[in-house]
Design a protein that fits this description.
216 residues; alpha/beta; 6-stranded mixed sheet; 9 helices; 6 strands; 42% helix; 17% strand; globular
């Protein structure tokens, strides 16, 4: 049975405010986007975390980014098994149909998914180890990287290191997709790994030369 209900009042008020201001001031741009379709230059794979606001970080307008969000900004390895793969489908659409020039993976501080992965690997989250845990099975993508931080003192630094390894895992897995690897190797598509500090507003990028994350 469909149990959908009307929006809460505060969201309705916000919508009417947006329609009367932002939309009204840029109506022709919205109509152009609708009529001509989207032509984003970049795809951003970020976390579902409500504190990560991709368009605000980069001052982007509608139509600039093709954004896919999931738990801990993870990309699974290429697995054409005929099953349901939302993230893989988004990547395929961005690269093959929209022909984006950039693939950006954006990680962040205080990531609950990464913290959950640490707890699971340490045996402190048996609910995530259960076969019916969607979050736990998703975090299995990152689980092998825990070995690289397992000997670090528990706390913020360990979590931050694994957050950045989550970005690296996604970049590595993206290259297992033939339709990603080919344009990357031909110089038609570039990949970028970023990590943002929510509290400080900092942004770091992965440098293939130094093999570490550096401030932007």
């Amino acid at each position: 049975m469909n149990r959908a209900k009307p929006l809460p009042g505060y969201l309705i008020q916000r919508y009417h405010g947006w329609k009367a201001t932002s939309y009204a001031d840029n109506a022709s741009w919205y109509r152009r986007l609708a009529d001509e379709g989207q032509r984003p230059r970049a795809m951003v794979i970020s976390c579902c975390d409500s504190r990560v606001h991709v368009t605000s970080i980069f001052g982007a307008d509608q139509g600039e980014f093709f954004i896919h969000r999931n738990i801990a900004n993870l990309v699974p390895p290429y697995e054409p098994d005929g099953d349901h793969h939302g993230t893989s489908a988004a990547v395929e659409y961005a690269v093959r149909v929209l022909k984006v020039a950039h693939l950006i993976v954006l990680g962040h501080s205080n990531c609950g998914g990464v913290k959950g992965c640490i707890d699971m690997c340490q045996g402190n989250a048996p609910e995530m180890d259960a076969k019916d845990s969607f979050v736990g099975r998703w975090m299995d993508i990152l689980r092998p990287k825990y070995d690289e931080v397992s000997k670090m003192p528990e706390g913020v630094e360990q979590e931050r290191q694994l957050e950045k390894l989550a970005v690296m895992t996604s970049l590595e897995n993206l290259m297992t997709f033939p339709f990603v690897a080919e344009p990357v190797q031909q110089g038609q598509l570039t990949m970028h790994g970023l990590w943002t500090d929510i509290g400080e507003g900092g942004l770091e990028y992965y440098s293939s030369e130094s093999k570490r994350f550096q401030p932007v």
